[in-house]
């Protein structure tokens, strides 16, 4: 990792640190200007770039870091050697006179982590005039980003939010490099968690039949309030990845509203909406062509959960779930 520091001569130098180094430093989170405007790694190493508009960013960031008692600071445009292969995606040219809420900064690929990780954040406009801090702008940032205020205001604990909630932050137009969620992504994630909210998605405009896993963060756009519930049964088992896909044991309710079609049913997940803790979320499934598929993937079912561990459908009638082993079909259509 390379960090910038101000020199006694008024210039700036780069210092290389090893991966084991732990030290405080400031980060400039910004949108990029045109290639010819930004100071690059080569400019700093060659002593050039002082006439570029982007040099003002370095000067200001160095001054602000010093005011915050920080010796070092980091700016992606000049601390990363663009000739290496490990280079982040480039943003679009900076636009002018945008309101805070519609700023392109909120659509950058790095914005989520830069909102959540730092304990303090100072927001400035393109003329380096202070807009506010993460604390004073908390309500507006929550409204824009969809991230709960308590997450932004406190040291972030990943265990306090569900996968569905995290995915909802990535939904929309944010260029996170996650427009499509591939099987490899889910395989790795499933090895790390037993969070049922991973299955509580709605595929807006998706085919009638699909697999059990979402194909885009946009499928979680309505999941900002999805939270986990205590398992309904003591026979709860973790789900796993097999050569066919996801294997999960869930309570299934066959048919709907009294019908007994054993080819169609919904399965009940151990998650709910935070405003309705006495419910459980379910998804519709069916046997199609000899394999299990999720059907009506643009819908989620919701059932009541009472203190005596009974379930009731939306009409108040008791239902009698039966455990099934669900194995996802990896050969599903797109």
From TrEMBL:
It comes from the Eukaryota. This is HET-domain-containing protein.
């Amino acid at each position: 990792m390379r960090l910038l520091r101000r020199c006694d001569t008024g210039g700036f130098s780069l210092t290389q640190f090893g991966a084991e180094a732990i030290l405080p430093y400031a980060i400039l989170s910004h949108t990029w200007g045109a290639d010819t405007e930004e100071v690059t790694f080569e400019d700093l190493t060659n002593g050039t770039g002082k006439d570029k508009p982007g040099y003002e960013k370095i000067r200001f960031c160095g001054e602000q870091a010093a005011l915050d008692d920080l010796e070092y600071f980091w700016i992606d445009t000049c601390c990363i050697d663009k000739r290496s292969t490990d280079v982040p995606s480039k943003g679009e040219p900076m636009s002018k006179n945008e309101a805070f809420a519609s700023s392109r900064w909120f659509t950058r690929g790095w914005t989520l982590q830069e909102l959540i990780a730092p304990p303090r954040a100072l927001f400035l406009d393109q003329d380096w005039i202070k807009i506010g801090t993460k604390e004073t702008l908390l309500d507006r940032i929550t409204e824009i980003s969809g991230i709960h205020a308590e997450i932004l205001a406190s040291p972030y604990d990943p265990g306090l939010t569900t996968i569905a909630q995290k995915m909802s932050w990535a939904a929309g137009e944010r260029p996170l490099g996650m427009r499509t969620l591939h099987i490899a992504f889910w395989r790795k994630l499933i090895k790390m968690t037993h969070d049922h909210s991973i299955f509580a998605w709605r595929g807006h405009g998706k085919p009638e039949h699909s697999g059990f896993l979402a194909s885009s963060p946009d499928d979680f756009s309505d999941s900002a309030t999805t939270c986990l519930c205590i398992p309904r049964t003591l026979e709860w088992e973790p789900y796993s990845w097999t050569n066919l896909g996801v294997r999960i044991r869930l309570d299934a309710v066959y048919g709907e509203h009294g019908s007994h079609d054993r080819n169609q049913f919904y399965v009940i997940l151990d998650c709910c909406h935070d405003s309705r803790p006495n419910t459980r979320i379910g998804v519709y499934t069916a046997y199609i062509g000899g394999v299990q598929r999720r059907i009506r993937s643009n819908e989620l079912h919701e059932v009541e959960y009472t203190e005596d561990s009974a379930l009731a459908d939306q009409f108040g009638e008791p239902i009698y779930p039966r455990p099934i082993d669900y194995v996802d079909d990896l050969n599903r259509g797109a």
